[in-house]
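Example S7 (structure tokens).
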């Protein structure tokens, strides 16, 4: 099982798989064999199911991101000075680490 380092890599491979499956469906459109027809039907259903799953996952992740952004906004509004101090500290730490790396 491979792991993807970026969402773009996963998206690219998923799109390639979907394109290949559609090409296979188009290539076998003229074949009337019962087994090929059944395989085409199952592949079409699997593609539709995967598409629905991807859309559902996208919406769920989007909703979670919006909820977390709202929570962060509320925390920052309740504790503005502490938030500034944390941001400065994180920025300083990242600056030091990046300067050291070069």
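Recovered sequence:
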């Amino acid at each position: 099982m491979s792991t993807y380092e970026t969402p773009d890599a996963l998206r690219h491979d998923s799109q390639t798989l979907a394109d290949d499956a559609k090409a296979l469906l188009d290539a076998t459109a003229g074949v009337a064999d019962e087994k090929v027809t059944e395989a085409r039907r199952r592949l079409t259903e699997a593609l539709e199911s995967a598409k629905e799953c991807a859309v559902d996952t996208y919406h769920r992740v989007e909703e979670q991101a919006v909820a977390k952004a709202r929570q962060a906004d509320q925390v920052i509004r309740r504790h503005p000075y502490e938030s500034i101090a944390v941001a400065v500290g994180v920025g300083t730490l990242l600056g030091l680490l990046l300067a050291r790396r070069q």
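Notes on this example. Helices lie at 7-27, 34-78, 80-101.
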